[in-house]
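Aim 2 progress update. The chain analyzed this quarter is reproduced below.
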Amino acid sequence: MDKSILYQYIDACELIKDTEREIERIRNRRQEVVTDKVKGSSYDFPFGQVSYIICGIPYDAQDQQALERQEQILEERKAAAEAIKLQVEEWLSAVPPRMQRIIRYKVFEGMTWAQVAVRMGRKNTENGLKKEFERFMRAA
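Predicted structure tokens:
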């Protein structure tokens, strides 16, 4: 596996979250109803002033098609990001448990090497873990 895809995992996870929020915003917009109050005269004599409430959607059929296309594009983007995430998770499950922990702490959680050493415990040093990680990634 290429090392770069490992670092894409974090971006893929964030992209999934961002895309889900954007899809939700589009779906909410399609369900949006705009209400306004206008004044006019009544149809019958004495033709007094009457208030009317008007309800409708804030877009036309072309906008509807554009929203549907935009949602489809976002769904495709989300699927691609999920594929990257799944690929990394499959690869990670084949890695030895110790290296899984190092990768999770350093790459996924963004810890410093000193923080990883503390989290790993058992007299691990930041330089030792860093070298172990570098050797593993060169070999992988």
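Helices lie at 3-30, 61-93, 97-108, 113-120, 126-139. The radius of gyration is 28 Å. These observations will guide the mutagenesis experiments scheduled for the next reporting period.
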